Amino acid sequence: MPVVARLRREWHPVTAPAVTGIPLPGRCPVRLPIRALLLVLVGLLCTLPVSLLQGSFVLMPPRVGLVWELLVTLAAGALWYRWQRDAWVGSVPRVPQSCRVVLTTALCCAATSAAYHYWIAEQPAPGFAHVDLRSPWSQATILVAALFTAPLLEEAVFRGFVLGMLRKRHGATVSVVLSGVAFGVAHGDLSRIVPQVLGGILLGAIVVCTRRLWLALAAHGAMNLAGLLEGAAYRFPISERLGILFPVLCAVVAGVAALDLRRTLTRTCWSPPR
What we know:
The chain is an all-alpha fold. Helix content is 72%, strand content 0%. The protein has one domain. The protein is globular, with a radius of gyration of 19 Å.
């Protein structure tokens, strides 16, 4: 089978209609009109209120910030439940495959980030300069924001809106790459730009292949948890002891995880037969 035909078959499988609200176009031109770039720009602008909602706790006392983050998470979770309830109920149970997708996505992003930060030092996250990271209240707030608040809000913007609108007129590859680049740029952190763009691309691929937006939500939370664990792992001088072997091993782990993720996404029947 030719390469182009094989890719088209993998990215546009013959399945039941999407239940996530993301349309499946009949024709997918590759050209990039101004409308696609405008959609990406709109997605970037949408991150401003999103960042204000999930990041306002840095301006509050630790306990008040935790309460605020919990309220934002509960409100976003309630909206997500109403939005994706039919998609959850109408999906085919694929629990082992879904867990594998979440784990391999987090492993791939964590290994890529570790290799990237071997060459480029990780900088403190923007806006966290005034946060007392030694306070248990602040630590709990950051954990809630990373595992729940940020995935809920960012997946709604980048995979729910930007990717969904791009898929109306463009193919899977163009839509996933553009939404992934927008996802990485929106974080505004050059010390993490490559892992974040890769993470956005993987999350977009999950939505395109599985038609499950909530699965990308779970993978996003796992990615953020892996990022927090990676930051904690730097207390141990593992990279200094291994030297150049450390990024090589990380690249191998990331590659194996990416191949396993691709196999799980493309070889699993995610939608019920017609």
